[in-house]
Amino acid sequence: MTESQRPSGEYPMYPSYGNGDAAYPPPPSYQPVQPVAMGPGTTVWPAPGTADAYTGGAGHGGDGVHGLPQPAPEPSAPRRRVRRPVALLAAVAIAAAIVGGGTATVIGQLTDNGTGGTAGSVIPGTTVSQSSKGTVSGVAAALSPTIVEIGATSTAGQSTGSGVVITSDGEIVTNNHVIAGASSIKVTLSTGKTYTADVVGTDPDKDLALIKLQGASGLKTATLGDSSRVAVGDQVVAIGSPEGLTGTVTSGIVSALDRDVTVAKDDANADSSQGQGQGQGQGGGQQWPFEFGGQQFNGDTGDSTTTYKALQTDASLNPGNSGGALINMDGEIIGINSAMYSASSSSGSNSSSAGSVGLGFAIPVNTLKADLDTLRAGDSS
Question: Residues 235-274: pLDDT tens digits?
Fold first, then answer.
């Protein structure tokens, strides 16, 4: 019987693999916490974070003086400063302003029928297509439906002038001298349809008047531009009804700015042979008289006159063009045609030889826009 060589209670020892840190199982990275004898019969376990005689450190690992060095704690991640997305906020603010401004514009057009705004702002209406901008034919095709012929009957006879539609329900701007003293007013659209019109307001000092068609709706309206942007040499188109020829189109350039033009305040102050308006239609009358540079043209302006700053153009204007539109190549109204020179009227020759000699004048559209409230209120001076 084989005897055991192992002492009682002794267990075999198993070899470790490797040395030091590579041994298996690996040694702990810190000394285990050991109980501390505080006195006879008293033993305590140190709480985490307190120094002890065995480890010499705080908690596990010591402080590197009496025991193993404590591993350096990992630095906490730096607190990132939250930066406001300034660029994004600015973009959002700009977009909001654009949307808000666009909304305000639409609301403004709905509430004031598209004719509100300051003198320098553009009042939207009929526009020229992008492919037709800059061409006389494109401007004529787009804007002709917004220009009307006005026939005014008075004790002096019947005169012919032109007007510009500014609201879809039939507000029309023209010259005061076209309708002054009229007992009845008939307006013919480019389609040939005829309406009766009433005078809403007049301003003889600016030679402007506002009339309103009876029972009209859905009319095309003109875009009122900004005459402060007009420059000498700009190409322009004139549309009106010279000698009753509705929708006649001529073109030219802006010849000068801020010309002081003096006209009679109404037909009573003009030469009696003139009648009212620019052209007596069937009667073959002469143009509305005016003064420029100290000289009188087309007759005597009388004693009661008014002077305004005008745009000068060489676009062909003839009797009946008064109150019609002077238009830039974007299709925006920049002036209301008001006076033109005819050599025959001062020489006394036959009126059949009368015609444009490239000397015409238009009231700047900014003057009209600044006067709209006065005209709509029915005020006159």
Answer: 999 999 988 888 999 999 999 999 999 888 765 444 433 4
Question: For residues 84 and 28, what is the distance between their CA atoms, to the nearest angstrom?
Answer: 48
Is the alpha carbon torsion for 314, 319, 322, 324 positive or negative? negative
Query: What does the alpha-carbon distance between residue 361 and residue 175 come to, in Å, rounded to a whole number?
Result: 12
CA nearest to 313, candidates 242, 224, 370, 231: 231
**Helices and strands, number each (H, E), in the chain:** 5, 17
Contact between residue 340 and residue 287 where contact means Cβ atoms under 8 Å apart: yes
Q: Which residues are catalytic?
A: 177, 207, 322
Kindly report, residue by residue over 195-222, the tens digit of the pLDDT.
Answer: 999 999 999 999 999 999 999 999 999 9
Q: Is 219 in contact with 165 (CB distance < 8 Å)?
A: yes
Give CA–CA dist 348/351, Å, rounded.
Answer: 8
List the structure tokens of 156. Answer: 């002096």
Measured CA to CA, the distance from residue 257 to residue 359 in angstroms comes to 13
Q: How would you classify residue 175: left for phi > 0, otherwise alpha for psi between -120 and 50, otherwise beta?
A: beta
Residue 337 is predicted with a pLDDT of 96
Global pTM value:
0.65
Q: How far apart are CA 121 and CA 161, in angstroms?
A: 27
If residue 211 lies in a helix (H) or strand (E), which one and from where to where?
Answer: strand 208-213
